[in-house]
Amino acid sequence: MVIKMKTVGIIAEYNPFHQGHLYQLEQAKLLTGATKVVVVMSGNFVQRGIPAIIDKYARTKMALSHGADLVIELPVCYATASAEAFAYAGISILDRLGFVDYVCFGSECGDIKLLEHLADILVEEPTSYQLELKKELKTGLSFPKARTKALLYYIKGKESKGYDQTSLELLLNSPNNILGIEYMKAIRKRKSKLRAITIKRQGAGYHDSDISLPNASATAIRNVLVEDDLFSLPKDLPVETMTILKQEFQKTYPIFRNDFTSLLYYKLSMVKEKDLTSYADVTPELANRIINNLTYAKTYDDFCLSLKTKELTLTRINRGLLHVLLSIPKTQNIEVSYARILGFRTDATKLLRTATKENRIPLIVKTANAKQLLNQEEYELFEQDVRATHLYHQMIFQKFHTYFSDEYTHGPVILKE
Amino acid sequence: MVIKMKTVGIIAEYNPFHQGHLYQLEQAKLLTGATKVVVVMSGNFVQRGIPAIIDKYARTKMALSHGADLVIELPVCYATASAEAFAYAGISILDRLGFVDYVCFGSECGDIKLLEHLADILVEEPTSYQLELKKELKTGLSFPKARTKALLYYIKGKESKGYDQTSLELLLNSPNNILGIEYMKAIRKRKSKLRAITIKRQGAGYHDSDISLPNASATAIRNVLVEDDLFSLPKDLPVETMTILKQEFQKTYPIFRNDFTSLLYYKLSMVKEKDLTSYADVTPELANRIINNLTYAKTYDDFCLSLKTKELTLTRINRGLLHVLLSIPKTQNIEVSYARILGFRTDATKLLRTATKENRIPLIVKTANAKQLLNQEEYELFEQDVRATHLYHQMIFQKFHTYFSDEYTHGPVILKE
Known about the structure:
417 residues, EC 6.3.4.- (chains A, B)
């Protein structure tokens, strides 16, 4: 009797890897009975439109040391995109690898049925939901509020979920629930066989900056690093995270957005207003505000704030500016076309061989081989990642005089069993 | 009887304005009997492909204080071009202003007839010169050596000048003679009525870095500033130069090429090899070397040196990289299409009124008016200047936290009589 080993996938940023991530990783195996964990992880720039605090190889090492078997890079244009594109790209990679059975994600609500149900409504848009949405919009409600009302109306009509307007609004405004719904939408859209499970987030919330709470958030940990205060790091950080954070401090990290201030201003002063809108997430309105606010740089952060209006959210501004900085153009295509391997445990090579044989998606282990594995369009996407990585390494060199080898020769992190 | 006032033009960099420049300015008036001096000056980047040590407004002030009546900016794409394009653009502006009678320049030889004669040969390429050049090239000589031989042959045939191969080679290799010949070529090509005079350079040579020599060169002065050693500045520096250099030190200057290291690396890491060659002075060979040598930045200077080969001169490399940094594309058109005024003495306004009436060339006094004065193509050229200036000001801000007002609102320097 052949017992197929099960594999669970996780989509993450690990910025940095903390106790909550470790909990999720362990629960993912426990709840699914999977023996292997594949992580699709952001590279050196993350979804809120900022650089990661520490580089992707260090974060890969943290993940592998604590139970991940394989870490694949989410290409930078998706890693820094909206929740919808981020989630769709992450699911696409897991799906196209062909050997992943489950996807596991954290959510504030912890209710996979509800997230799935909401995703179904948003993908299908049933007539009664559509009609209710139109009705609510006519009363002058904002789109998010009207959508919540319509969703609530539709859910209640189908099956009582015990949610009211306020609690459903809260649910729909929670960042991990939002991502969760997008993961479910992506699975649905791709007709993927991936089975989803969600884990209710424990401890500190996503935005919670209190470092003393149990399971302090990544935000809280980063804030400690801003203050150069390694002593205040939570004592319960996963061991390899702690080791790396101590070893690498002021050698390869911390990297902040403000380190890129002069580069951002340089790029912005070299681009014409009409060309600005060729970059992802730069609307004509944002382009116009950029040009009109472009005096001398105080800091990158201050510049972002100076652009904010009622209509332009900070997240949109952050992403738009980052895409200008990284030269990431607008693109219609959100299908992910390759899997670039950042690291693996030696016993995960079997997984890789399966994927390679089945030829599901080009697997890039050695970056130098990318050109022959990818077609022209894919390679251009890959080059975006290389450029973003070189820029990040350049910043490390500039700040700490630490040299990283060229992305074309940098091999994956390999953890021997 | 109306006695027309004569005007003399000078093409310069004034990086910074020193005793030799003052001498030239005074001699120019003396020798021509001119009462007004118009200077066409490089902006914030200069011909050897580097930033000026101090900004263009400060250098304008130095020039006006010591006898210049009007300072016009040589657009950045010409200011950082080959001697031929630099000289042609400078002469074009003086010519098209319509009120300039003479052009005066320094040269190592001090022999205007000889420079004119050489220029004539190079523009006309008489048959016997051409034949001799071909013959010499066939013997395996390099182009410059063969050209010198052919020129010598032709001159000797016409009139004995007392030059031999060595002395003519030396003459043709001296930077100010080279420029001088180019000025004469430009006058000839434009069929300009400008009369040229040359002044034999006094004191230290162009490349001479000895600060203790009388009339120390701009190179020697800049070297003192590199060392942060204001006390070693020559005591005979023109008074306003000395005042400004003392007042502005570590406030708005010195600016070095190495200040732009991270920006250069950023730009280079963002451009594809094939797009590199779209910038002025970037040959496919240079583009290829840039890509292959692009590891982590030590300094801008070191990077330039790392690109050098027998075929690629440092000057070509410097210019190529600067044009990438400033986004200056290759262009066929070397006709200058506007005159942007950096500063004037109040009694020079008459000159400006004449030029404006005769509508010879669009005169930009207020940069904010440029858009309505210039056509699309001209305005794009003008925007190159604005971008280069903003980049330079951004660097001043970054280094010294000194704020310069926006180039669109920065008025010309006005010196009241």
